[in-house]
Specification:
single chain; mainly alpha
């Protein structure tokens, strides 16, 4: 009965368009009032203790770092590097967008931030090159998902905290899946562009131009080396790496590229603070929600119920993927990770999945929700930039959903894609 009240009230509140953080808190209160085996203070304690965490501190700093680097001229220079590599190929400008999103993903850790930073430049540029605005907005929204898959990744930090898994290991495990998805997108765009007759920039590939672009973007390209190299080299933790990224972004934007002005810092900090506040409220409410589920022994019951359906790992992981695909369509990814990790991790362990590999599967499945209505945040950002409706962009996004599902199947069937760099 507690589960019915908890999930029933939560679903009802979502249908009433109540913000997800508030919906989680109110459904938790309803469950506490019904169960009467825990005081209401439990919710307040959960809201505070869940965000009073050293690893979680990485979230606001990576958000701030992404905002600073997006405004500080780093994204423009990354575009020049990508353009010098593939610009003259059929669909070269669209391929440039994907490669740039991959580069920027290794800086921001956020899907919407990647769409905002790259889309504001590349959507108008692609339209000017003859691409339809619908196609341009769709490819930016889709490639923006790399911001969550390529490390550093905010959802990976959240999963690491929720599951007790090493965030550093998750970051390493995200590298090859990110490359796989980017390559599949590039292949699709190339053949689509050839079919539609989209030519490149007309400027032949030149090592001299590439070297010039790389040299101009050196302060941007070195960011992933500093962040990931520092983590894997044992010089600092992911949280400390996020702080280093903020400091480096300020130095690069103000002193090296000289495009970040002090008057820009107010808007940067305001945007980062609003995004951080939203995420932290969701994390706090979702953690309390999850703890109540654990106390009511819901994870054990759900795991037992799923395992009773079949002992075939393929069938069970298919059911889990279908569930998470639906959840990703209607729920914020951060909240979904915190709520469903305690529920589904025992099932994954019982099936023999490595927790890191399983985490990549969960995150990638939920990330598909970034580009599916009605909650697809990347779609909303791309819509705001392009001026197109969500439905028009959704039509252009269908091939990329198929690509991500293909990548997901490959990662499930071939664990080495996630675990190879870990030596697994």
């Amino acid at each position: 009965m507690s589960a019915i009240i908890m999930f029933g009230s939560f679903g009802l509140l979502l249908l009433m368009s109540v913000p997800i953080g508030i919906a989680l808190a109110l459904s938790s209160i309803a469950t506490l009032l019904y169960a009467q085996d825990m005081p209401l203070e439990f919710l307040a304690q959960g809201l505070i203790t869940s965000v009073d965490s050293f690893p979680i501190m990485a979230v606001p700093f990576f958000i701030l770092a992404g905002e600073i680097m997006g405004k500080g001229g780093l994204s423009k220079r990354l575009i020049k590097v990508a353009e010098s590599i593939v610009g003259n190929i059929s669909g070269g400008f669209a391929m440039t967008t994907i490669i740039t999103c991959f580069f920027f993903a290794a800086i921001s850790g956020s899907g919407p931030a990647t769409v905002a930073a790259i889309g504001g430049i590349m959507i108008p540029a692609m339209v000017q090159m003859g691409y339809s605005k619908q196609f341009a907005a769709g490819i930016v929204a889709a490639a923006g998902t790399l911001g969550v898959i390529v490390p550093p990744s905010i959802p990976m930090i959240v999963y690491g905290v929720a599951s007790g898994t090493s965030v550093g290991d998750l970051f390493i495990a995200g590298v090859l899946p990110g490359i796989l998805i980017a390559v599949l997108m590039l292949v699709y765009v190339y053949f689509y562009a050839r079919k539609k007759g989209f030519s490149g920039t007309g400027e032949a590939f030149s090592f001299k131009r590439l070297i010039r672009a790389v040299w101009d973007a050196k302060w941007a390209l070195i960011v992933p080396v500093i962040i990931l190299g520092g983590i894997y080299g044992g010089f600092f933790t992911p949280t400390e790496a996020a702080v280093v990224a903020v400091v480096y972004g300020l130095i690069a934007g103000v002193l090296l590229y000289k495009e970040l002005r002090f008057k820009d810092l107010y808007d940067i900090c305001r945007n980062a603070a609003l995004m951080t506040a939203t995420i932290m409220l969701i994390i706090g409410a979702a953690t309390a929600f999850g703890k109540i589920m654990i106390i009511e022994q819901m994870p054990a019951k759900i795991a037992g119920g799923m395992l009773s359906i079949s002992d075939n790992p393929i069938i069970l992981i298919t059911l889990i993927v279908i569930l998470l695909l639906f959840v990703g369509m209607v729920m914020d990814t951060t909240a979904a990770i915190i709520i469903f990790t305690p529920l589904l991790l025992p099932v994954g362990v019982e099936l023999g999945f490595d927790p890191v590999h399983y985490g990549i599967i969960i995150i990638l499945t939920l990330v598909i929700g970034f580009i599916t209505p009605p909650i697809g945040v990347n779609l909303f950002v791309a819509s705001e930039i392009s001026g197109l409706s969500i439905m028009k962009i959704s039509k252009a996004i269908v091939p990329y959903i198929a690509i991500m599902l293909l990548a997901l199947i490959l990662i499930i069937l071939i664990p080495e894609i996630a675990l190879l760099l870990l030596g697994g």
